[in-house]
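[job 0412] stage=fold_complex status=start
inputs:
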Amino acid sequence: MSNLFDLLVAGLATGAIYALVAVGFTLLWQTSQTINFAQGEFVMLPAFLMLAAMHVGAPFWLAIILGILLSMILLGLAFKLLLVDPMMRHGVLPLAIATMALAIGIKEAVKQFFSAEASSFPSIVPTGDISVLGHAVSLQSIGVLAVAILAVFGLTTLLNRTSLGHQMQAAAQNPTVARIIGVPVERMILLTFLINAFLVALASLLITPIYLAKFSSGEVLGQAAFIAAIVGGFNQVRGAIAGGLLIGVLDNLAAAYVSTQYRAAVPLIFLIVVILFRPQGLLGRAEERTV
Amino acid sequence: MKSTILAGALFAFAAATSAHGQAIKLADVAELSGGGATVGTNWKNGIDLAIEEINAKGGVLGRKLEVTHADSQSNPGVARAQVQKALDAEPYVLLGPGYSGSVKVTAPLAAEAGIAQIMGGEAAELTQAGNKFLFRTSFGQQSSMPKVAKYIHDEMKAKTVAVVWVNNDFGRGGRDVIVKELDRLGSKVVADLSTEAGQADFAADVGKIKAANPDAVFVYLNEEESARILKELKRQGVTAPLMGETTLIGQKVIELAGDAANGARGHVGLTTDAPVDLIKAFRDKFSKKYNYVPDHNGLKGYLAVYMIKATTEKMGKVDSKAFADTLHGLTIKAADEPGILMDVTFDQNGDIDRQSFLVEVVEGKQVVKQVLPKLK
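[job 0412] stage=fold_complex status=done
writing structure:
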C-alpha cells in the first residue's frame, strides 16, 4: 500500500506536466480552432533556449527568464502571425498539417544546432525527500506538482474571475457577438497564444531535469498530452487538467500493477474506451454541428 | 604495331596508378539520431579520427581511406534501407550499426553481398547464426554476461537479484543470458522488469524494485534510460548495489545522471579509463579533437578502422571477398598495430577475445577495479 502512495504522487507529478501541455491544446482549440501537433516540440524547445543562454554565460535564473520570453515570442507571437494566421484561411486540416511540419522543423533544427545527444538540465527544485504522512516523497515531485497547480490555478482565475478572462472566453465562444459588444477579439486570441507559450515553457522547465533535454523528447510528451486533452474534453480547460492527471496516474499504476511490458498501450486503450462511450471527453461539452 | 603496344602499356600503367591512387571506400551506417544518438555519434567520431590518422601516415597499402556516414535514426527499418543503399556503392567493408536490432536485420544483406560487416552490436545471437561476414568490436553477451553473473554471485554475495532490461534485441539478449546464469549459480531473480526504449518515467519500475527488496539490481538499458533510472533509483532511495554492463557506467551516463551514478558498477569490454597506455593516448587525441571524453562506442569505431588496416596489410591487397576469411582466426597485436589498442583475437564466429575490466563510478568518474584476462 505504501507503494501505491508513492505511485500516486509520482503519477500526479507527471500528470500535472501533461495537464499543463494539454491545457495548451484546449486553449488554442477554443480560441482559434487550431490543433497544434507541434505542442510536444513546443515543450522541448524552451529547455534548449535556456541551455543556449547558459552556454553564452547567463546564470540559470536569467536563462529561465530569457527562455520564457523567447518562447513567448517564437512559440506565441511568431507562431500565430507567421503560421496560424496565413494558414487559417485554408481551413483546419491544412493548418494541422502545417503544425506537423513545424514539429519536424523544430526537431531537426534543434538536432542540427545543438546535438542529437541528450543533455542534462538543472532543476529549479532541490533534490532530496521530505516526509508526507510517513512516506518519503521527493521534493522534485512535490515541486513539479505545486508549480503546475499554481499555474493552472492562475490560469483558471484569470479566465473566470477577471474582465480580461471573460473577454477571452467571449472571444472564444462567439467571436462575432464579442466583436459587436467591443471585445478586441484578435488581441484576446493573441493573448491565448502567449499564455500557451508561457505554459509550455514552464512545463519544459519542470520536466527537462527529469526527462533530460533531447531533440526528440517532445514526441512522447505531445502524444501523452494530446490523449489527455481528448480524454478530459478537448473544449474544456478543466477537462484537459483532469485528463492530464488521470493519464499520469494511470500510466504509473498500469506499469506497477498490470504490466511494465504493455504500459504504453494502457492510455491508448483508455482513450478508445472514453471515445466510444463519451466522445466529447469526460468533462467536455458536446458541440452541435451547424448545417 | 608499336603504337598499339605503347598504347597498351600506357593504359596498363594508367590503370595501375589509378588503382594505386584510388581511395579505399568504406561505408558506415550508424545511430546518428534517435534513441541511440550517443552510440552512433561516438562510433562515427572514432571512425573519423582513425581514418584521419591513417591517411596522415600514408593510408593503407599506399591508398587513402574514405568513409560515407549514413543515419539509421536508431530504427532497424531505416538501418536496413541505409545499408542496402551503402552496399549498392560496393564499399570495401561495411561499418556499423551499433544497435543489435539494426545489426540483426542488416547482417544478411552484407553477407549476401559478400562484404564484411564490422559492427558494435552485443546481442549474443548475432554471431551465432553462422554468418561468416559479421565481426564484433566488443564482447557479445554470451562472453560478458557470465562474467557479470559470477561477479554478482561471488563478489556481491547477492542471493536475490532484480533484473531490469530494455525491451529490444539488445536488452532481451542480455536478460536471457544473465537470468540463466544467475539461476545456474543459485542467485534468485526476484523481479524481472522490461522497460521501453526511450522511456522517460521510471517511477513505477523502481517502485517494483523497491517492493522486491533485492540484494542487488542488474540494470541493462540504453544509455539515456540508464541515466534516468539511476536518478529515479536515487530519488526513491534504493540502496541495493547496482550492477550493469557498459551502458550503465558510460561517460555520457555519468554526465547525465550526475551524483546518482556514483557507486554503480559494471563490466566493460572497453573503457577510456582502462589502465592501458594506448587507450589513454586514444582518449587524449579524441578529447582534443571533439572536446569531450568518448564512451566505449568511440573506442569501437576507432579500432574497427584499425581492424581493417591490420587485416588488409596482412593480406597485402585490397580484396573485399578475402577480407572475412583473413580476419577469422586472426590475432592482431597492439605492439604491431598500436591502433588496435589491446591484443585481440577473432574466432571463427567473428567474436572478439581480449582483456576486459570491472569498473565502479566513484565521484563521477569510472574507476577500474579489476582487469580480467583474455578468455583464451
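[job 0412] summary: The mean pLDDT of chain B is 90.
[job 0412] exit 0
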